[in-house]
Amino acid sequence: MLRARVAELEAGAQNANVYTASQQGNEKRHRQAAEQNETEAALRKSEQKFSRIFHLNPLAMSITRLDDGYFLDVNEGYCRLFGYTREELLGHFSVQDLNLWQDPGERPRLVELVRQKGEVPDYKARMRYCDGSIKDCSLSLRRIEIQGEDGMIAIIRDITEEKALEQALIQARISAEETSLAKSEFLANISHEIRTPMTIFMGMLDLVLATRLEPDQREYLDTAQSASQSLLRLIEDILDFSRLEFGHLHLRQADFSLPALAREVIDMFRYKASRKGVILGCTIDPQTPVILHGDEQRLRQILMNLIDNAVKFTDRGEVTLGISPAQSGLVSFRVIDSGIGIPEAKIGQLFQIFSQVDSSSTRHYGGTGLGLALCRRLVEMMGGVIGGESSDGEGSVFHFTMPSDLQDGALQKTLRKPEAQNATCPSPR
Ligand SMILES: Nc1ncnc2c1ncn2[C@@H]1O[C@H](COP(=O)(O)OP(=O)(O)O)[C@@H](O)[C@H]1O
Ligand SMILES: [Mg+2]
User: Fold this and answer.
1) What fold is seen in the domain 254-429?
2) How many angstroms is it from 75 CA to the middle of ligand 2?
């Protein structure tokens, strides 16, 4: 009896186990089905999202089978760009049938690249539109699996206008370079053509001035000589400024004697200053290196411009060139005058091209407004700094620095004693 009861209980327990197992199996299947549904829903959602992006994108997009170029989908942008309808393309044509590539070898090459790399950005190719016209296009491609097929999605941009613009810019740059080259060649030629007769003219004046002359004849010829020197300086300045603009002006490096150069420059203006009754002098600090290493011709040009201005804008009193050593191996130059001065606020702008204190002064004093701008460019090229101080009616000081860049300590000589103000420059030794 008891045994029968035990058997009954055991059978009940087994049944209960069977029931539990089948219930668990059912739940698992339900869970799996729910998960699958969720995955499919997410997939559908993402496909819909992709489809929306694909079809609403204003850029031309296509999906083709990788192997044969058969169209799997195209968007409105693609149809607009190439001139076909969606119906014409889907299920009828492959990109080969349409002869889309100007170079038929282009697609196999591109497909090979996509197979190797998975994606190819900004591939440039020439493509044929429905009307037969050939356009420059940029394609960005990516390999994708779509509807179980090995496919390739392409975003295509017509860059014909961009390319034309790029070409036009390249052409414009080339012709600008050619024009610039032609201009500098012209300048080099004209420089030679103007300078040669000027040099002959000035040489002849020198020869005549060396002969016995009546005082008034000498005076006329002195005036002619001074005017021709100014003209030559102006020509040089204009040409140099053009060369600077084109980056064709290069500094020379050589040793030269500073006192000799100072003397030469002062001598050039001696006649002009004395005619105005202005005393022209030069002081050189004895600590200043005698031999400098740099571009003597450019230093001469800067000094000539500053002294020319000082003499031009001074009607009485004195003009002095002062030279002394400055910090960090620099030499300092100052041109001091007791002339008409410059309103303080205007000094800075005078270093800009064509800038003058008063345009009406052009009639009285002449000039082009080129000199100080050229001086600034030259000084900066040499690694120095230029500036000026003045106030209306109080005279002016223009100053700049230049590296002395001594090559050899043995060359360093200093002057015996400081020259007195307004004294003439020492002779070169
Ligand atoms: N030492 C000076 N005294 C008074 N004004 C000066 C002096 N140096 C330059 N300037 C002013 O700066 C202007 C520009 O000088 P610059 O560039 O040499 O051109 P330009 O001498 O041809 O006029 C001059 O026209 C003048 O107004
Ligand atoms: Mg000047």
Assistant:
1) Heat Shock Protein 90 (3.30.565)
2) 70
